[in-house]
Fold:
Amino acid sequence: MRFMHIRTRFAPSPTGFIHLGNLRSALYPWAFARHNKGDFILRIEDTDLERSSQEAVDVIIEGMAWLGLDLDEGPIYQMQRIDRYREVVKQMLDSGLAYPCYMSEEELNKLRDQQMASKEKPRYNGLWRPEPGKTLPPVPEGVSPVIRFKNPIGGSVIWNDAVKGQIEISNDQLDDLVIARPDGTPTYNFCVVIDDMDMNITHVIRGDDHVNNTPRQINIMRALGGSPPVYAHLPTVLNDAGEKMSKRNGAMSVRDYQRAGYLPDAILNYLARLGWSHGDAEVFTKEQFVNWFDLESLGRSPAQHNPEKLLWLNHQYIQNSDPVKLAAATKPFAHEMGMDTEAGPDFVQVVSLLKDRANTLIEIAEGAKLFYLPAPNLTADQIKENIAEAVMPVLKDLVEAISTAEPTKEAYAAVFKQILAKYQIKMPALAMPVRYALFATTQTPAIDSVLVVLGKEEAVKRLSKVVQ
Ligand code: GLU
Structure:
């Protein structure tokens, strides 16, 4: 075990909506592989042709790339491995591990009704299962059989789940699983087993909605001479109302978060903590996460999605981001809002000014409007309404002082201090009219920093227009 080369996989079914909780099932096997210098494989379980879509595959692949969950192998599509599954079905028939079953749909339904009526668990009764000395019914003409796996009789399947502890399921509870349909197409649980074996998967880390499949998968694997991997079944992610996450109750896809201005590292950090912990660490780097990740610290109870915590984390990441990188990430949002970030102050400076108060890239871009939208064209009435007559001489003095000051935050701060002292007024009495004159709003970051970013020339131009 100690020298095992770890191989994990994320095996999504590309059906329907891919929410954040789904991608958590990619994050943990990825982190486990990276932590152990193993391999991480993406396998697309697309054999349900009606429900699978390329759109869902794209969302998964893009989402993983955006979060930086790099692959060693894949994407491997199950639909491209159908010949392999058919080959194994044939081998199993030849070696007696599986058998054809001709029971029709109607017969199966009848059997189920009878079992339900006598309060038994509905299960296939083994009618077509060959046994020594048993005579099978005559094969009906023109009927294509399903192929069933000969599940062991008696005994139980036991595995030590890395999250849930030891689980034991009696074989009496498992009937003979259909591994191929009448048209020869292999079934879900069967493909999973063949893939996990062929891909030498050592650790299956997946949602606990698959716990019920596990004993069947283990039985097939053992029958084929394989040894089962370690299983770690992750508790579900619930939404903030404690319900199962779904599009209907407002779950967002990774793309939605990208569009809402979240940083991928913040999402990764957030997802990491949804069901795993390392002491009381809340904010950590991707490298730390990989270094710390182990299966022992996975949570045993359902994790609950907490949008406020995610927003808080995003804020932490924005605040601590390198301004150049943050500016590059914010630019597309600013462009989408119609700003020309080349025409105006240096965008990196603008972003540096705004980042400490922003929760999302959208909020930064919104704030940047101050510097890239055209200068306000204030009417006489607007000026009268927003700037007290008595402040005009003060503003006039200020404009003059600013024109000759060094273009630094410190120098502008000194100018304000000096003017405030001269007129015996408080900062807001001056800063608010200045803000209004510059931008037609009083909501801006600290005025001395704003002047630096806007640029002296532009600031003086805008202020002069008002004081004349
Ligand atoms: N395709 C399954 C799903 O999306 C996962 C199967 C597995 O991990 O074994 O739920």
